[in-house]
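## Example pair
The file below holds two records. Each record gives the amino-acid sequence first, followed by its structure token line.
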Amino acid sequence: MRTVSWRAAAGDHGERLDKWISSASVGEFTRSRAQKMIRNGLVAVDGRSERRPSWPVRAGSEIVVTIPEPELIEAVPEDIPLDVVYEDEDVLVVNKPRGLVVHPAAGNPRGTLVNAVLHRCGNLKGINDVIRPGIVHRLDKDTTGLLVVAKNDGAHRSLAAQVKERAVKRVYLALVHGIVASDLTIDAPVGRHPFHRKRMAVVPSGRPSVTLVRVLEGFVHYTLVECELKTGRTHQIRVHMSHAGHPVVGDRVYGGERLSGLGGQALHAWRLGFRHPVDGRYLEFRAPPPSDFQDVLDRIRRTG
């Protein structure tokens, strides 16, 4: 088990505790799971156990949640189309579309990449866990691009070790606001935002986070950059670019504005490289950005 804590902001005053925890966890817990944890005595408010899901949150209160081991749910195979870039007996590389969640969560077991992979690959039980079989790394729901899935335990152990050792190459294309004058390295710790519980932020207490930024193309109001992850924190590129004064276009959570024709944030995992878990060959794949991203780029190029 592990514990997390948050402090309620002024705007949270009066909100139900179960709803607040679900929101504070940024989707990690559904409201029904938050209710279950509260009733099981896993939630403390200002040092005292609180077992009422309807308890009204008070501004300034510290809420501490003891998180139990993940609830193992059965992910159901579903016939969801996949853009497969590469596949063999050990790994599957897919180009994830915008809007597709990577793995199920308690209370939301369907319509995810995992459900689609189970339909394509058959039984992946026992790899990682039942909720996230084969998942080595993730992409946000509205981030598109390349993702590798392990098809057996050996592949999962190898790929997970490569991610931990920062040996997996993960490079993204991002259209950002403003003029990025030159390449830069953003080395700034990322953690939970102290006031806005749905966001991450650069905070002193955060985990070490490094993003390499290379300028590809400049426009009057925007810059197309390539961002390489040297660490893999939640929302890392989005947080780092916003911190640098250049939020990702379409990323309203971190200050980006939506452009007409763009279905979400202009962030695409376009290069992915790793050592094959069995024979050690270095494999690297590329995927062009989705059509809405490319159309916006073409429009900006025409208009400057």
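Second record, same layout:
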Amino acid sequence: MTERYSEIDQVIAYIHQHIDEPISLSQLASHLAYSPYHFTRIFKERMGLSPLYYVSSLRLQKAKDLLLRTNLSVRDIGLEIGQQSLGTFTTRFTERVGMTPTDFRNSTLEASSEFRSLHNLKDLCTSHSDNNHYGRIEGTIQSTIPFDGVILIGLFPKPIPEGLPLHGTLLFSLGDFCFTGVQPGTYYLMATSVSWGMQATDILLPHTTLRTRSREPIVVQSCSDVPHQQVTLHVPRLDDPPILISLPLLMSNFLNRTMQHSNR
């Protein structure tokens, strides 16, 4: 299937190749000989994000890599991705990844522990329903290739998996899913898979995990049904937004909810 505004692929490739350099809106627009206004409009229609927000997302992904793969200080990593203020870098990283840069750097052992706990839980886990006073979003998730692991799936306010999802859960197999208690609003469905054989660093830096996202927003209204969602996990594509939210944090939240339900 040909994507609408396929010329945006050229810009996405350019951004990836020059992510270490200053990138301006006018520079990106001129790459296609478009006006900044027209370029921003079609980029957002194609990607769901503004061009510079997409650039900042890739730079935060780079910060995650640098935190785990280098000994650079948090301040130097902020400077490396163009953040002159340590406070601003820490705030933005925390909002979009779910923990501070320092906590993320130190989370490898915790990630391994959470993943082992999930593996031990997979044969015992049963699904739990949320508050059912509001809307309901049901769907089916498939995959283009087989895998053995878990699927993290959530509803986000933007078409990028950053920050804690407004609703989220974990699946131990492909098939049906359901979110209940969804208040009226606009949501984007995002999911990724983690194979049982993955190491902690691969989970914290999920560059190769299968993923999927709803291209169109899911609108929940108080008195109408939401269409059944059919999504398919696929290998990463160049135009997929980076997965910024910490996957071990989502695993931890799922385990905590499961423990709370089992103690009732």
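Notes on the second record: Residues 126-130 have pLDDT under 50 and may be disordered. The beta strands are 135-143, 149-156, 167-171, 175-182, 185-195, 211-213, 218-220, 229-233.
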